Amino acid sequence: MHFFKKNNLITxxxxxxxxxxxxxxxxxxxxxxxLNVSAAASLTDVLKEINTLYTQENPDVTITPNFASSGTLQxxxxxxxxxxxxxxxxxxxxxxxxxxxxxxxxxxxxxxxxTLVLIVPIDSTLGITxxxxxxxDKVKQIAICDPKSSPAGTYAQQAFDELGITAKVGPKExxxxxxxxxxxxxxTGNVQAGLVxxxxxxxxxxxxxxxxxxADVNAKIIYPIAIIKAxxxxxxxxxxxxxxxxxxxxxxxxxxxxxMVNK
Length: 263
What we know:
Order of helices and strands: HEHEHEHEEEHHEHEHEHEHHE
Distance between the termini: 76 Å
Number of domains: 2
Shape: elongated
Number of helices: 11
CATH architecture of the largest domain: 3-Layer(aba) Sandwich
Helix content: 40-55%
Strand order of the largest sheet: 2-1-3-10-4-11
CATH class of the largest domain: Alpha Beta
CATH superfamily of the largest domain: Periplasmic binding protein-like II
Number of strands: 11
CATH topology of the largest domain: D-Maltodextrin-Binding Protein, domain 2
């Protein structure tokens, strides 16, 4: 009788120990997280590389990117799209979301800078060397982003206004939904010139940069980042943003032509 009681006690003890081990293991296992990151189209290539590196180092995190013009992304967020992190190509769209109390204000930071440049097809023979040349009769079509939805389009219009050529170039404008579409228009020769970010021009072998927009316009091109208030993964989003400011991410940003904003 005592023998059976002793065995039962040992069995119960082993079962209890096993349950305790399983419980501890379960608590320490990382919980899978999916981060929805909405970012300006000009960040497509650089973020794909950074995201790959981040998920390699954080295998419990899955990043689902959504690239489009900043204005389009703003509208999606306003309409309730599931977004954890928003990275805009201008302050305007982030300002709008902040006024509508749709972002966590204390997470907003400026991440990188860019520049807007004038590009032409690599085999262009028109002799375009400045933005002022766009007003000449020899130039028939110029691609820019739609200013209503894309910061790059707004910056282009500001440059035309500053140079006093808006009236002459306006009728020639072919509007693209984002910088990648404008780049394609120029690459394929469907237009004779276009304005894109220098980082977009850098990835193409079919175009060449012939000029930059005025320095005071380029000085405005800053990419802010913030966590959306409706995010259910705030801690994971904060960790991701911290990585974007790391030296590892900085190296990748600079490889693609971006410069980090000095804090």
